[in-house]
Amino acid sequence: MSSSNLATETTSLLSNNQPKDVSSDKPKISAWKTLPAIWVGSFLSALDMTVVASLYPVIGSEFDSLNYSSFIATSYLITNTAFQPLYGRLSDIFGRRTMLLFANTVFMLGTVWCGFARSLGELCLARAFAGIGGGGLTTLSSICGSDIVSLRERGTWQGFANIVFGIGGSLGGPFGGFVNARWGWRSAFLLQVPLCLGSIALVSWRVRLPTKDDGVSSKQKLARIDYLGSFLLVSAVTTMVTLFTFGGDRFAWMSPVSLALTALFGFLTVMFYIVERDYAREPIAPMKVLRERTPLCAYIGNFTNALCSFAVMYEVPLFFEAVLFQNSEEAGARMFPMVLSIPVGSLSAGLYMKRTGTYRGAVIFGFTAMLCTLFTFMFLFRRGQGVSLKYIGVALGMAGLSYGTSLTSTLISIISALPIEYQAISTGVSYLFRATGSVVGISMGQTALQATLTSSLHRSLEDIPDKESLIDAIRRSVTVVPTLPKHIQKIVVHSYVQAFIASFALIAVFGLIGFLSSLFIRQHVLYSTVDRR
């Protein structure tokens, strides 16, 4: 896009939909003193996500509901998804520090509740409550980084943030498996509480980002919130996740229930679009921002890459347990290559952008690598129990490297393509697409896996007495498989292998969409000053 066109777009955006609370005139703030205090929350968010990734088969099996265990993750991601774009606008209204304290407090209370949950349903409710706070921990970290770091340096700082995130993610699986093996899965949640308290203390002490609306009353600030748009967004996301969680498993994709949910999702999405476009005074997702080519393509890429990455993150541990008969601690430790390579990819992309002043090459590399990695997993799964763990480790490393590279490069492409006043809002929308992709990736991957597994088991176990009870037990608890007689065990493992291949074939379609979208992302100027002058 030419500079004259960009100027015209910028003028149009500002005149029609300019946020009232921006941070372009604030005094210089030390990034080294402020951002590490915020990153503690990001660390917690990453730790919590991978703790659940390694424990959900154990928790689902304990509650005799393994086939519903994806809800442990999706219930968190529903609210996490719905509230992430809200934090962009709300932090413009109430201030970054206020929303950081809110996010940390809600996350801590939800984590405590998870530790005392008495059923899978209650645990999912607790995860959903924690997700309201978790949605702000990562989003606000990125928003605050853009407030005080220039575009040219932004990728490097995002790389540092993702190192912290990667450390949290790398510790989550082993931590969850270690704690579960000794004190049970509940302790994996309760032991996070001291870190939550430490995060709240650091934000209170270190974060001092000024706002322009310090003299505005709370009533006036509350009046600026887009309540209807927020409600429609939450409703649409909930409907979508319900469809992808149960569709093809509890009811057929073409059943009346699936069609009704699809229609409801479509209606809510259209209503959200109309409200945001025509009625919201301060929309949480301005339509003019979504129509710009580079952000739109980057948002699509955010969705597909998160979908692919989270499908890998949640399904590969299940492969370790169901096919290779490893316990949760071993499965969690095997995920190290992925969670460690995410920050490596992110920081490498940041350094590349700082040195060259461009991001497009990093964007295309990230999506190309992800697509190749998905095909690699499909090839490796065909080996079944004879697969080399070394090669799986390499594939996991490539998945993490591609995801980390894409995370940083697409974020910078979005921020650089829009006026500075839209940094917080566009970042929130970016996290919305990432989180939506995460929800769909986990739910769709599990749905495809369970549907294929059930179908394969019905065909392969025709001559087994009490076939239905056996299939139900296999779908409910992964720990049943190693205890089966050898001839039945072989059949079940083969069915699981076929299910993993089918699931990853579907995921690869979205990897291809992400790759194609990356080709349409344009290069914009990466300024060396915060105010882009």
TrEMBL record:
<dbReference type="InterPro" id="IPR011701">
    <property type="entry name" value="MFS"/>
</dbReference>
<feature type="transmembrane region" description="Helical">
    <location>
        <begin position="185"/>
        <end position="205"/>
    </location>
</feature>
<dbReference type="InterPro" id="IPR020846">
    <property type="entry name" value="MFS_dom"/>
</dbReference>
<keyword id="KW-1133">Transmembrane helix</keyword>
<keyword id="KW-0813">Transport</keyword>
<feature type="transmembrane region" description="Helical">
    <location>
        <begin position="68"/>
        <end position="87"/>
    </location>
</feature>
<dbReference type="GO" id="GO:0000329">
    <property type="term" value="C:fungal-type vacuole membrane"/>
</dbReference>
<protein>
    <submittedName>
        <fullName>Vacuolar membrane amino acid uptake transporter Fnx1</fullName>
    </submittedName>
</protein>
<feature type="compositionally biased region" description="Polar residues">
    <location>
        <begin position="1"/>
        <end position="21"/>
    </location>
</feature>
<feature type="region of interest" description="Disordered">
    <location>
        <begin position="1"/>
        <end position="26"/>
    </location>
</feature>
<dbReference type="GO" id="GO:0015189">
    <property type="term" value="F:L-lysine transmembrane transporter activity"/>
</dbReference>
<dbReference type="InterPro" id="IPR036259">
    <property type="entry name" value="MFS_trans_sf"/>
</dbReference>
<feature type="transmembrane region" description="Helical">
    <location>
        <begin position="392"/>
        <end position="418"/>
    </location>
</feature>
<feature type="transmembrane region" description="Helical">
    <location>
        <begin position="225"/>
        <end position="247"/>
    </location>
</feature>
<dbReference type="GO" id="GO:0015802">
    <property type="term" value="P:basic amino acid transport"/>
</dbReference>
<dbReference type="GO" id="GO:0090517">
    <property type="term" value="P:L-lysine transmembrane import into vacuole"/>
</dbReference>
<feature type="transmembrane region" description="Helical">
    <location>
        <begin position="296"/>
        <end position="314"/>
    </location>
</feature>
<feature type="transmembrane region" description="Helical">
    <location>
        <begin position="160"/>
        <end position="179"/>
    </location>
</feature>
<feature type="transmembrane region" description="Helical">
    <location>
        <begin position="334"/>
        <end position="352"/>
    </location>
</feature>
<dbReference type="GO" id="GO:0055085">
    <property type="term" value="P:transmembrane transport"/>
</dbReference>
<dbReference type="GO" id="GO:1990591">
    <property type="term" value="P:asparagine transmembrane import into vacuole"/>
</dbReference>
<feature type="transmembrane region" description="Helical">
    <location>
        <begin position="359"/>
        <end position="380"/>
    </location>
</feature>
<dbReference type="Pfam" id="PF07690">
    <property type="entry name" value="MFS_1"/>
</dbReference>
<dbReference type="GO" id="GO:0015174">
    <property type="term" value="F:basic amino acid transmembrane transporter activity"/>
</dbReference>
<keyword id="KW-0472">Membrane</keyword>
<dbReference type="GO" id="GO:0015188">
    <property type="term" value="F:L-isoleucine transmembrane transporter activity"/>
</dbReference>
<keyword id="KW-0812">Transmembrane</keyword>
<dbReference type="GO" id="GO:0015182">
    <property type="term" value="F:L-asparagine transmembrane transporter activity"/>
</dbReference>
<feature type="transmembrane region" description="Helical">
    <location>
        <begin position="36"/>
        <end position="56"/>
    </location>
</feature>
<feature type="domain" description="Major facilitator superfamily (MFS) profile">
    <location>
        <begin position="34"/>
        <end position="526"/>
    </location>
</feature>
<dbReference type="GO" id="GO:0012505">
    <property type="term" value="C:endomembrane system"/>
</dbReference>
<feature type="transmembrane region" description="Helical">
    <location>
        <begin position="496"/>
        <end position="521"/>
    </location>
</feature>
<feature type="transmembrane region" description="Helical">
    <location>
        <begin position="99"/>
        <end position="120"/>
    </location>
</feature>
<feature type="transmembrane region" description="Helical">
    <location>
        <begin position="253"/>
        <end position="275"/>
    </location>
</feature>
<dbReference type="GO" id="GO:1903714">
    <property type="term" value="P:isoleucine transmembrane transport"/>
</dbReference>
